[in-house]
Amino acid sequence: MNLLARLTGGVPARSLWCLGALLVLLLVAPALLGKYGLSVLILVLYFAFVGQAWNIMMGFAGQLSLGHALYAGVGGYIAAGLFFHYGIGPWAGVFVAVAAAVAAGSIVGYLGFRFSLAGVYFALLTIAFSEFTRIAFDHWGWAGGSGGLFLKVDAASDILNLRGGPLLFYYVILALAAGTFILCRLLLESRLGRYWLAIREDPEAAQAVGVPVLRCKMIAIVISAALTALAGVWNAFYYNNLFPETAFAMGRSIEFTLAPIIGGLGTLFGPIVGAVVLTGLGEIFTDLSEVFHISGLKQIFYGLALLVIVMYRPAGVWPWIAERFGFGEKRR
Amino acid sequence: MSGARLELDGIAKSFRGLRAVHAVSFEVPGGAINALIGPNGAGKTTIFNMIAGVYRPDSGSVRLDGRQISGLRPDLVCDAGVGRTFQIVKPFKGLSVLENVTVGALHRRPTLPDARAYAADILMQLGLHDRRHQAAESLTLPDRKRLEVARALATEPKLLLLDEVMAGLRPTEIDVMVTFLQELNRRTGLTILLIEHVMRAVMALASNIVVVSYGEKIAEGTPAEIARHQAVLDVYLGEAEPA
Amino acid sequence: MTADFLLSLAQAITKGLLTGMVYGLMALGLSVIFGVMRVVNFAHGEMMVVGMYLAWMGFEYLQVSPMLSLPLIAVIFFGAGYVLQRAVISPFIGRPEHQQFLLLLAIAILLVNVSLVIAGPDARGVQMDSQFDSYELGPFVFDAVRVHAALTAVVIAGLLWLFFTRTRTGKSIRAAADNNLGALVVGLDVRRLYAFTFGVGAACVGAAGALMITIIPVTPFLAAEYTLLAFVIVIVGGLGSMTGALAGGLLIGVSEAVAGLLLQPSLKSMVSFGILILVLLLRPQGLFGKSGP
User: Of A259, B47, C91, C176, which is least packed with CB atoms within 10 Å of its CB?
Assistant: First the structure.
């Protein structure tokens, strides 16, 4: 099939085997892991998923967003609010949530790109919109204001309303992460994907060879915002609570950027590797700092790890691994 | 593929009150190779940027085969059939040489395998095929200049604007480029307008030369006429041009 | 009623102007660093908070007023900034923005959490006698600490201006900012100048921290807020412009104070972000910036 050929074309067989084995392993993982292991794996997949979504914008199209919490927050709040107030389940609510995030992304993107903001300036615009929205949600009664929005925690599993235990959420986030991986590969191996890379490298030269720059950037932010909104919905129903303080925090936005940057910006596998590294380090440091009973120690380890990685592997961990072990994916 | 006729009709551009180009008109017939010369800062690149859609002329119009293209966005000008190179080369640094040209080829060939095959073909013609898997940023300056030409050609233009693609090339390399452009023009009928300081290349290539100075056209004619033109000699006096 | 309102409005504006001077000094540090080496200091608010903690410790453990410890803090910050630039940041100059961002983010995480480990999560403030003093001018009442802090900030900004216009090093730094290659050609030691600049920028924010602790207590969680605030101010004023940073500080100080009076206090930063969005879209080079980004 054409699609399948496009998906696998040019990929070394041994990479395909590794990917297949990884997928099988992930599918049976819940049977092998304990409760703790599963919760860690869920976190890894969550950060891999949002990381891939962010990577489309920054890694592919070269637009630095430090306000992606906006889309996750809007998406999560809308789906949770619809469920909370009107009993509309997330499988329906998610469409509204994604539409709202796409609208938000379109506004930020159109204003930023139309006025030719680039680099740090565009990043600050995205932060400003996210912060602006955070304060608005602080004062919006429907969304619970600064007191937060809480979903009832039901013991009973109700897949139709995305209510259930970790196992349900594990498979949902696995599907999202795997689906996005395939989507990213298809996008990258398309005209649109090549146009994004060209814009990332040099927008003026791209436009001179016929790339409709504004349109391509808009498509990037819309796809990225939509996927991030899905992560927000998943997150809201997994944790059952939402606070503007955390949902729209700059810290949340920054969290989304770390896995792709650490893993390797603009690569397909980078965000996933980055999510494994960061979540793994996070868990190790949590255990380590518990030994000493000092709050903040975990973050100090974390900061040191980031410092070491960015100083010695500034292009990310994955390109380095890929080269050493011959998986053949490099930054295009 | 055949060349398009380019007409500039009194185009002018000012930047913050400073007049960069003042009412310049000339025509490049379809299938011709013409040159635009003049001292540094004469407004040559500004004229190119107005043709390519980077700047909208304050007044006047640019027409390609009779169709007005001035005021269009650069990507739409490319659609209309204009390919251009940049004086200060602008490769997609992180991409391979092949991918650089593929982006250009995608313009008229929407699938990647098609575009890639076409790009490889163009790289072959320009002698860059051996380096197709190198990152563009690792190329030497002469190779980057050739890459600019290859990427512009990949969009299958009817008019090619070349902004100082010979600068920095060694004499033998200039000869190779001149031969390539002549051959290309003969084979495809592509119209070429070049900005060039290397007079040897201009004289060998151009059937007609337009001279600008301080934003105004001061002369136009065949290479032989221009070489004798008093106003041109005055402009170039004191500014020693390497032949 | 109206007279009362006008008076409290005028009062809010003056309060905003005084606080705004300290904001301006903080933002000045960010602006100087960006203007010279094109690095956005994402750890700026964290540095500010460290400055506040140092002043608090001086007061708490050594009974030294923040105003007196300020010069020492500025010197320490200068040294630390110089070393940090030389040892860690230097190789990242000219690298892609996301790499610089990650580097400074790591530094920010370290600074704020070291503060947390040392001082704990509780708010720490200084209790000085002058906090109850005030100056009266007709119907106006000025908090003495705010006046002192603002005046000190003005003096430091003035000294900085003298440094950049009168001293050899200052002029060299400006030359390097205008034309990096040119500076290299004429034989300036750009690496040393960059380290010096980062030191100066750090000293500004350290001094601003020492002043700020006299106005409000410090917690580690203020850091991210100050980073954002500094960004807003320098973008509004014009990234890289000294006048812009000070004017932006005053503007944001006043808008916060007035918004706190007219709207709910919790909405005050919404006004700042609104101003930021407008400036980014309509005049991205900032109110005092020379050319576009």
Answer: C91
Q: How far apart are CA A174 and CA A180, in angstroms?
A: 10
User: C116: which chain A residues are within 8 Å (Cβ-Cβ)?
Assistant: 295-296, 299
More confident residue, C171 or A206: A206
Query: What is the domain count for chain A?
Result: 1
Angle, in degrees to the nearest 10, between helices C144-166 and C2-37? 30
User: Is the pLDDT score of C278 beyond 60?
Assistant: yes
Please check whether residue A212 is in contact with residue A303, taking contact to mean a CB–CB distance below 8 angstroms.
no
**Residue whose C-alpha is closest to residue C234's, from C265, C204, C190, C195:** C204
Q: In terms of DSSP bridges, do strands B33-37 and B208-213 run parallel, antiparallel, or are they unpaired? A: parallel
List Cα–Cα distances, B119 to A111, B98, C264, in angstroms. 35, 7, 61
| Average pLDDT per 10 consecutive residues for chain A, totaling 332 residues | 69 82 90 90 96 96 95 96 88 94 96 85 90 90 86 71 83 96 94 96 95 96 98 93 90 91 92 93 83 78 88 89 72 48
Secondary structure class of C70 (helix, strand, coil)? helix
- pLDDT at C292 exceeding the cut of 50: no
| Positions of chain B with pLDDT under 50 | 238, 240-243
pLDDT at C119 over 60: yes
ipTM of the complex: 0.91
Token pair 């298809």 is at which residue? A186
Q: How far is A99 from chain C (nearest CA, A)?
A: 23
CB-based contact, B112 to chain A, within 8 Å: yes
> Chain A: which residues have CB within 8 Å of chain C?
58, 64, 66, 111, 115, 117-121, 123-125, 127-129, 131-132, 135-136, 138-139, 146, 250-251, 254, 257-258, 261-262, 265, 294-297, 299-300, 302-304, 306-307, 310-311, 314
Domain annotation for chain B: domains and CATH numbers: 6-89+157-236 (3.40.50.300)
* A269 within a domain of the structure (yes/no): no
Which of A9-18, A252-261, C85-94, C166-175 has the least mean pLDDT?
A: A9-18
Q: Which of A6, A133, A160, A122 is nearest to A76 (CA)?
A: A133
| Domain membership flag for residue A172 | yes
Q: Count up the domains in chain C and report the number.
A: 1
pLDDT of residue A331: 46
Residue A235 lies in a domain: yes
- Residue A116's domain spans which residues? 33-248
| Å between A295 CA and nearest CA of chain C | 6
Pairwise CB contact (< 8 Å): B90 & A202: yes
Q: Longest C-alpha distance within chain A, in Å?
A: 59
Q: Is residue C257 part of a domain?
A: no
Distance from CA of A8 to the nearest CA of C (A): 30
In chain C, how long is the greatest CA-to-CA distance? Answer: 66
Residue C114 to residue A257, Cβ atoms within 8 A: no
Domain that holds residue C171: 14-128+140-221
A272 inside domain: no
C291–A contact, CB cutoff 8 A = no
